[in-house]
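Internal tracking record. Fields below are filled automatically when a chain is submitted to the structure queue. Please do not edit lines marked as system-generated. If the sequence contains nonstandard residues, flag them in the REMARKS field before resubmitting.
Queue: standard
Priority: normal
Entity type: single polypeptide chain
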Amino acid sequence: MIILKLALIVLPPAILLWFIIKNKDRIKLELENFKHINNIENIFYSTCFAFIGFNIINSLTSQYFGTATVISLPVNIPVLYIYSVTISPIIEEYICRGIIFKKLSSKFSFRLSALLSSIVFAIPHFNLSGFIGYVFVGFIWCWYYQKSNNLLIPIFSHALFNFTTILIMSLKG
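SYSTEM-GENERATED OUTPUT FOLLOWS
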């Protein structure tokens, strides 16, 4: 059990470090392209659409699947905040948008590519009642990624989405 806990703490930052080292040129280019004011607007709008849409979809589907909640983890663990707001968005967006969506969109339509990569995004959230909501959120982030051609838009939007969710969970107790 101790090894599993240690792996959960050490493995995500190690993956993130590997990602940064492997993609330093791409990251530098993304940061240079990020300076435009439209990117801040894209982050704001994509976060708002994702959060509002996720909650609307979950309220509509809760009568069929039960109340949708974010995976129930104790909100008093600092590692949860750090992981959910920094590491998780980078890794998930790089895999789901930067690799899967990008490869699929070169061969298929936007809708199919976004749908498939969003399903891959939703599966590891281990939440059947929120599955459709997570697919919707993934679809929004695919759209903003394609629109901006900048992976930092969905990464920052994802981080804000997680931050807002954790903040609300913390305030509820």
